[in-house]
């Protein structure tokens, strides 16, 4: 692989293709049906979830969530806390199954650790399923040149032994690292540095297409070729227009359909809403908010979110959307769950 210099820069000014504001789509609502146990830390602590679907027994799938004042938590689909790991001041988390770690196939869990910022780290764990737990692999240091704090995070699995970590820094840098998980001590080598104009956080890679989507909180969502050898500049996928997408943009996730299609969903934290865009056309497909149901309260101030496709146990027989709830009073923050079938019905009912 040809690596980029640590100082490689992509100019973004010429890549901006702003989407003109349009009349606001009707804001729909959808109900959360389950929630996880609250995180242990008070205040703004829960931040970002990731989901592992158990292919042998989908009802035993697992949710990994951050408590950014302490570490990582593992929940089952009922929201019960099963295991925890004191991982540091972890912010965003992602995972991929079928990753070769030390010569064996495993489930990789990775998160940004801000404990020693600006000398940030990537916290690496293997998700164990029997008994459930997180096996620590390493806290890998990343380039600490004072550019900003490690913040947003996502993984790209190009192949079982070809995995990249993408860190969105709070100064606008988006740095891509090639992970080496073959040896006894994992390492991370920076292969690309993309500079956006202001603070970034939420990011997601569509493993089907190798497209990276990054939320620049005050400007919008960028689409970037995740291939580290690509010289294509970032392109604006969905701009903040003050109507359908409000600053600040936080979590982003892919809702896949077929080989390349589907949707991108983003949390618009300042108006407690979510914007859904068609992946192929980048057109707005739906704007909605999440209400409560039964003992589950409504969702506000969402930071991170995740959509996991596939059949789980009922009512998540067509995937599951999990979002952070910024206000779970009187309890600490937690994560809420929405059935994928209801979400897709909502998106495609217009």
Query: Which stretches are low in confidence, meaning pLDDT under 50 for 5 or more residues running?
Result: 1-24
Please state the average pLDDT score. 91
Rg measurement, Å: 19 Å
Q: Main β-sheet: number of strands, strand sense, barrel status?
A: 5 strands, mixed
General description of the model:
This protein has one helix at about 340-345, and strands at about 25-30, 35, 45-50, 60-65, 70-75, 80-85, 90-100, 105-115, 120-130, 130-140, 150-160, 160-170, 175-180, 185-195, 200-205, 210-215, 220-225, 235-240, 250-255, 260-270, 275-280, 285-290, 305-310, 320-325, 335-340. The protein has a single domain (about 15-345), classed as 6 Propeller (Neuraminidase), CATH 2.120.10.30. β11 (about 150-160) and β12 form a beta hairpin. The chain has about 350 residues and is mainly β. The strands form six sheets. Strands 1-22-21-20-19 form a five-stranded mixed sheet, with helices on one face. A four-stranded antiparallel sheet has the order 2-25-24-23. The chain is globular. About 50% of the residues are buried. The model is unreliable at about 1-25 (pLDDT under 50).
